[in-house]
Automatic annotation (TrEMBL):
Cell compartments where the protein resides: Nucleus
Domain RST: 16-87, 107-144
Keyword Oxidoreductase listed: no
Entry GO CC: transcription factor TFIID complex
Coiled coil: none
Native source species: Artemisia annua (Sweet wormwood)
An example molecular function term from Gene Ontology annotations: RNA polymerase II general transcription initiation factor activity
Name of the protein in its database record: Histone-fold
Amino acid sequence: MHAMNNNQRAAKAMNKSCGTPLVPFAMLYPFIEPQLDKDRAMQLRGLYAGFRNRRISKVEFVRRVRTIVGDHMIKMAVYKFQTTRADKKLNRAHILKSNQQAPNAMNRPSRKKVPFAMLYPVLEPRLDKDSAMQLLGQYARFMV
């Protein structure tokens, strides 16, 4: 039987308990970095470089990222990543569908639809934190 070391056990337990899907850090970084002050952004860059160069373990990397960034910001980054990815899929499907429609259908006026992932960054600065979180919650329920 394959024996697990302490780091592997901790990583497995952390993956089970986190409740959010696993997303590579490189995909989350663009959503996290703009929210950080310069010092924390530099810390995060250095930490990620150490992880990529295998100077620190995955478990240690995740623990330190959570300390620097916080669980809430990580969850928001995962959420934004997922909504961006979902909106891109919807846009591709819409383009394919519109290309398959009859030519006269393309001449009809239509409403422009703006993906939530593009609209939210414009709305967020204009909303108080509670309203922004409420809007994200409503959107999450709509997407389920």
